[in-house]
């Protein structure tokens, strides 16, 4: 039999441990080309540009 906890972990102790587990929003920046917001240091999904240059060709439906 493996190691088991000696005592029950209280709800307050458990929740204090999980205080830092919250998810955060990605850092959004405005695209230089089209003005849409996208995740920083990523290609813009709307126009396919990165740092003002077109990197990916986007098909507009």
Properties at a glance:
61 residues; alpha+beta; elongated
Describe the structure.
By secondary structure, the chain is of the alpha+beta class. It has one helix and four strands; from the N terminus they run H-E-E-E-E. A hairpin with a 2-residue loop joins strand 3 and strand 4. Helices cover 11% and strands 16% of the residues. Strands 1-2 form a two-stranded antiparallel ribbon. The chain is elongated and about 60 Å long. The mean pLDDT is 90.
Produce a short descriptive summary:
The protein has 61 residues and is of the alpha+beta class.
Low-confidence segments, ≥5 residues, pLDDT <50? none
Main β-sheet description: 2 strands, antiparallel
> Cα-atom Rg, whole angstroms?
22 Å
Q: Helical residue percent?
A: 10-25%
Q: Give the spatial strand order of the biggest sheet.
A: 1-2
Roughly how many Å apart are the termini?
60 Å
Figure out the total of helices: 1
């Amino acid at each position: 039999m493996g190691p088991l906890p000696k005592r029950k972990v209280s709800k307050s102790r458990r929740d204090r441990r999980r205080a830092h587990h919250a998810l955060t929003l990605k850092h959004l920046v405005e695209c230089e080309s089209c003005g849409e917001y996208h995740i920083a240091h990523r290609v813009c999904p709307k126009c396919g540009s990165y740092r003002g240059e077109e990197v990916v060709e986007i098909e507009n439906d």
